Each structure stands twice: as C-alpha cells, then as structure tokens.
From TrEMBL, chain A:
Residues 24-79 form the Phage shock protein PspC N-terminal domain. One of its GO terms (molecular function) is kinase activity. It comes from the Bacteria. Pfam families: HATPase_c, PspC. Residues 422-443 have a biased composition (Basic and acidic residues). It comes from Streptomyces gilvosporeus. This is Histidine kinase. One of its GO terms (biological process) is phosphorelay signal transduction system.
From TrEMBL, chain B:
It holds the Pfam family Response_reg. The modification 4-aspartylphosphate is found at D82. Coiled coil: none annotated. GO terms for molecular function: DNA binding. Residues 1-24 are annotated as: Disordered. Residues 1-16 have a biased composition (Polar residues). Residues 29-151 form the Response regulatory domain. It comes from the Bacteria. This is DNA-binding response regulator. Residues 177-242 form the HTH luxR-type domain. Keywords: DNA-binding, Phosphoprotein. GO terms for biological process: phosphorelay signal transduction system; regulation of DNA-templated transcription.
Length: 443, 244
C-alpha cells in the first residue's frame, strides 16, 4: 500500500486500492452484529459465512467456556470497523453485510439473553462445591463489563455514522447498569471472602477508596477534559482555515494564473479580475445559505438583477455596478422586466462601456418595481436607429409594454444613455400585501 | 456645465465648491490610515497635485493606536480611514477621535475608504461619525473631489451607500408619522435615489433643478439622520438581515 497515506486523525484505514490488494486487517463489524461484532468481523476477514464462525464460537463455549474467553479477547483487542473487514469499504458486494445497519437491536438483545441463559446452564453444571460460589459474582462482573464495552462501541459507531448523536437516557442507563453489575459482582466476591456481617464496613471502605481515587485522579481528569475541548477548538479553527485556504487556492490563485497568462489583454484581465472579485465578495460577505448555488434560477428581483449583471459583466468585460433597494418575489411581468433589464445591460456594456462602469439601480417600492440602467458612453438617438433593427424596440420597449409596464430611453445630462423600466407587481400578491398594510395602518 | 457656472456665480465667496471656486490653489492636509503600505503608496501617488487643488499627505498610520497618535499630532483636515484595521478597525479610530471631530475650531473629518461595501461596515463607520464612504475602486479624481467635499463639511455618498440608506428607510415607509423627524424628506429621498442610480452631485442638481450646494446639504442631512436618529429602526433593519 504505497498510495494514499492514511489521513491523520481519522478512524479509517486507508482506502483499498483497486489494483493491488491491501493488507487485510481484522476489524470487528459495526453493522449487523449480534454481540460485539467479532464473529461477523472474523467471517468477513476469513471470507466465511457468519453462521459458521458463530457455530464454532458456540461449540468452543461448550468446551469449558473457551469460546467465551476467546470472544472476550477479540472484543477487547480488535478495533471496531464499519464493514467488518475495513472501514469505508466500497458498498459493492457488501449488500448482505450492510443490510442490517439500521435494524433495531432486537437481535443483539436476543443474543445477550441467549448468552446469559447459556452461561447459567454452564454455571449450574459447575454448581458443585463452595469454591464455585465465586462463579456468580464473576459472571455478574463479566456481564457488567460486556455491557459497558458494548455501550462504548455503540457510541463510537454513532460518532462515525453521525446517527444517534442526540443525548438519550438509554446510553447512560446502560452504562450505569453495567457499572452496577460490576459493583455487585465485586461486592459479592468481597462478601464471600469476608462475611455478611462485615458488609457495611466493607462497603464503607470501598466507598472511601473510590472517593480517594476520585480526589487523586480528579484534577488530572479535569485537565484531560480541558485539553480535549481545547484541542477540539483548535481543530475546528484549523478546519476553518483550511476551508479558506482551499477556497483561495481554488478560485483566487487560479484566476491569478489566468491573469498572468493573459497579461497583454487588458480587457480579459479586467474581466477575470471583476469576476473573481465578485465571487470572493459573495463568499466573504453573503449571509449563510444565500446565493450559494449560482446556477439556480433567481426567485426574487434582487437576485435576478444581480445575476443578470454578473453574467453581462462576465461576458462583455465591462464593470457593472449594481444597487438594489428592497426586494420582492418574481412574477411573470417582473420576469419580463428582468429580461428587458438584461437586454439594456448588454446594450450599455456593448455601446457605452467605454465611458466607465455601467450603473444598474433597481428599486422595489410598494407595488412598483423600477430598474434603471445607465451608461456613460456616446449615447444614441432612438429615432435614428433603422427600423429593421429590433433590439431596443422589441426586446426592451415592446417587451415591457406587452407585459403592462413602461420603458423610457433617454440621454443623461452628460452623454450616455439611461434606460428606465417600470412595472407594477401582480395583483394577487399585491392585494394581500396592501390589505396587510391597511390593517397595520388602521391598528 | 452651464448650471455649474451659474452655481459658481452664485456663491463664489464660500469657496466651497470642490475645485476651489475662486481659482486660487487650495490645500487640504490629509492623513492616510491603512494597514497596507502598498495601498497607502498608491493613494499618495493618485491624489497628488491637480490644477487648482493640492492634497498634502501629512501623516500615515497602519493600525488604530498609530492612527490616533498621528491624527492627534498632525490635526489634519481629512483622514482617509480604512474600515478593517488591526487593533479594532476604523470604528475604534473614530471612537477615540470623537473629541477632535467635535472640535469647532479645527474639526478633523473622516472619509472611510474600504474594499468592503458590506452594509454592516458602511453603516458602522457612518454611525461612528465618518462624513463619507467610498470604495477603493474609486478613481483618483473622484477621490480628490471627495476629500475636498469632506474637508468643506459636506457628505460624500457612493451610489452603493445611497442604496443602503434607501433600503434602510424603505422598510419604515408606512409606520407612524410622529417620527417624521427620523424619516427622510421626499426631497432627500429623491436626491439619494439619483445618487444610487450613479448620478454625480452636479447631475443630481441639474435633474432636480437645484444647486449643487442644495444637493450637498440634503446629503448631509441624510447623514445626520443616519447617525443620530432612527437608530432603533436601523438596528432592527440590520438585525433582520443578520448584519449585526
């Protein structure tokens, strides 16, 4: 496995290379397991059916509990993996193994009950003398430890799969039950060695020892917790930094390279720089969750105007400054107005772009949506445009009038051209809004 | 240009028109505050001597502490202030220079100059007392004009800033009339609307048949209202847009 060094800080083994078989490591299976996932993991590792491995374990269990010891050892030492063999294995051919991931833990409960029943049968077989009085406490301890370990596994799996992150009572209960079982078992052993009369004092002594240990270890534990949370914070920061770096690398450096390459084409350079600037601004200043998907159809006037301006700017390499006041959802008429505005921007960029930036102003005020597109180019006389040239007449004026709006073209005080588009918003939405407004005024 | 000439004829004694109406050379002392040395150098090169005006850069600073020290020591007429500065940003400089801004004898005026045209940055420094806001894409000539306008006590609005203000007051259209003082007058709104559409002050005056001085006083009034009143409305507006 010379390719793809393992990523630090992840639980995952290196992704298997399709060409050369990776070193196969043994993992316990996190999905579809009954108890600890040992049998399933072994089966996956050895390429055997799971039931065979389980039968072998049960058979060994009959042989003086050797199976149980083996199983416990595997559980203890072998790390948990998602697919049983390795984490993040390709899903192909793993259908059967993966099928059970979301199944409730009924099978596991059943397995635990079966295990306890088997254990009690074995225990009753060995119920011979006083020496075996230790057996029950030992079993209790074993069960408690198993429960706690099982819980740890669950937590870990939940962490990977991002499921069950919510804090429930059940995990705590399970952990507590495990601890209680272990405590009972230990107490049982102590009681057997001493006598029931001393139970009170034994418990007291145990409690004292526990408190003492807590006092001694407490500061270290707190320290460790603090270190951990601090480290987590650092990791989050590092992640954020990495994200910024990735973005800057992806877009900014890429654009800079393009600019260097086309350094003798000022138009292209300006176009690239403007596009990059806009993107970076959007990334830096836009609120979360807005305008992230560039390709989506705009839903509101503000989005539509900005999108049109950005596209015209990219296409014609003329800077377009957009100011939008207010916002409202697009309807049919407004969509037509946006198309007319876009046409006006294209004209302004094409014929008036030499005079500097094209200025676009859009305002939603009450029921009226107003858009003005202004350039500082040489300007032109609409009446002087030959009648076969339909651009302005049809795309802008005609389109606006067909949809019940107005379009005005005129020369600005110092040359240049201004196109002013006005459109009323549709009644359906408007009636509601004006009604609301009236209510607000009355109350 | 004819109306502009008329304007000069009307008020030559004020000498307030940015080019210096009397024709004599005017000098404005300026301090540059920006944490990028390259940018300071660039601005210095851009805003040198023009025909009738002169911008003299008397000091430079790269962070908040330095800025306050330099401004106190040199007492310039105009400070070109970057919004994002180490040590608390332009707003902090404004806060610590409040007494110098309020000085009736030789007031120090601030013109914010930033790459950011995000609403929270713009509104923040205007609230802090800056007399104008321009972005770094501005041309040298326009910047010199802006500097002189600010030095004369007028306000400088970029179309973008005018848009923000309109937007802020647009949501307060309907509500109570008793806050009339807080709202923009119809005229102020018209002026802002034209500025937002990219008209220069001169062109705005021409469109509305008023003098450039009137336009400037309208704009100053808007700025005053923006700073001192309607704070709650603006805060609500900004909060609604998750800006603050």
């Amino acid at each position: 496995m010379t390719t793809a060094p393992p990523r630090a800080g992840t639980h995952y083994a290196p992704a298997p290379d399709p060409e050369e078989p990776p070193v196969r490591k043994l993992y316990r299976s996190a999905d579809g397991r009954l108890l600890g996932g040992v049998a399933r993991g072994l089966a996956g590792h050895l390429g055997l059916p799971v039931s065979w491995v389980r039968i072998v374990f049960v058979a060994l269990f009959m042989a003086d509990g050797l199976g149980a010891v083996l199983y416990a050892a595997f559980w203890f030492f072998v790390p948990l993996g998602v697919g049983g063999v390795e984490a993040r294995r390709p899903a192909a051919g793993e259908g059967r193994r993966r099928r059970a991931v979301r199944r409730p833990d009924k099978g596991q409960v059943f397995a635990l009950i079966a295990l306890l029943a088997g254990a009690s049968i074995v225990a009753s077989r060995f119920q011979l003398g006083q020496a075996n009085g230790y057996l029950w406490p030992v079993l209790l301890i074993g069960a408690g430890v198993a429960l706690v370990w099982r819980q740890a596994d669950n937590a870990r799996r939940a962490q990977w799969l991002e499921i069950g992150r919510r804090k429930g009572v059940l995990p705590v209960l399970r952990g507590a039950a495990g601890v209680a079982l272990v405590g009972l078992g230990v107490t049982g052993i102590v009681v057997l060695q001493g006598s029931v009369r001393h139970l009170g004092s034994v418990l007291q002594a145990a409690l004292a020892v526990v408190v003492g240990i807590a006092l001694l270890a407490g500061p270290y534990l707190v320290r460790i917790m603090q270190d951990l949370s601090e480290e987590r914070l650092m990791r989050i920061r590092a992640q954020e930094r990495a994200e910024v770096a990735a973005h800057v690398h992806d877009s900014v450096l890429h654009t800079l390279t393009l600019i260097q390459r086309s350094a003798d084409d000022p138009r292209e350079v300006a176009r690239l720089a403007r596009a990059q600037e806009r993107e970076l601004r959007a990334w830096l200043y836009k609120p979360e969750g807005r305008g992230k998907e560039e390709d989506e159809e705009p839903q509101t006037v503000a989005e539509a105007v900005r999108k049109a301006a950005a596209e015209v700017e990219d296409h014609h390499g003329v800077p377009i400054e957009v100011v939008v006041v207010g916002d409202c959802p697009l309807d049919e008429g407004l969509a037509a107005q946006m198309q007319a505005a876009r046409e006006a921007m294209v004209n302004a960029a094409k014929y008036g772009g030499e005079g500097g930036a094209v200025q676009v102003f859009a305002e939603v005020e009450g029921r009226t949506v107003f858009v003005s597109v202004r350039d500082r180019g040489p300007g032109f006389d609409l009446d002087a445009v030959p009648s076969d040239r339909m651009g302005v007449r049809e795309s802008i004026i005609g389109r606006m009038e067909r949809n019940g709006g107005t379009a005005r073209l005129r020369s600005a005080p110092e040359g240049g051209t201004v196109v002013e588009l006005e459109m009323e918003r549709r009644e359906s939405k408007d009636g509601k809004e004006s009604g609301e407004r009236n209510e607000g005024g009355g109350g | 240009m004819s109306s502009d000439d008329a304007q000069q004829g009307q008020a030559p004694q004020s000498g307030a028109d940015q080019a210096g109406a009397a024709g004599e050379e005017r000098t404005v002392r300026v301090v540059l505050v920006d944490d990028h040395r390259m940018f300071r150098t660039g601005v210095q090169a851009e805003i040198g001597v023009t025909e009738r005006t002169r911008v003299e850069v008397v000091g430079e600073a790269a962070d908040v502490d330095q800025a306050v020290t330099v401004i106190t020591a040199t007492r310039p007429e105009v400070v070109l202030l970057d919004v994002h500065l180490p040590g608390g940003g332009g707003v902090e400089v404004l806060r610590r220079s409040a007494t110098m801004m309020a000085d009736p004898e030789r007031p120090v005026r601030f013109l914010a100059l930033s790459v950011s045209d995000a609403a929270e940055d713009v509104i923040g420094v205007i609230r802090g007392g800056a007399r104008g806001y321009v972005t770094k894409t501005i041309t040298g000539t326009d910047l010199v004009n802006a500097i002189f306008r600010v030095a004369d006590g007028d306000a400088v609005f970029s179309p973008r800033l005018a848009g923000f203000v309109l937007d802020a007051f647009a949501s307060t259209d309907a509500p109570p009339v008793d806050e009339a003082l807080d709202c923009l007058t119809q005229r102020e709104r018209e002026v802002l609307r034209l500025i937002a559409r990219g008209y220069a002050y001169k062109e705005v005056g021409k469109q509305l048949f008023i003098s450039v001085k009137t336009v400037e006083s309208h704009v100053s009034a808007v700025l005053r209202k923006l700073q001192l009143s309607n704070r709650s409305e603006l805060t609500r507006w900004a909060a609604a847009r998750r800006l603050v």
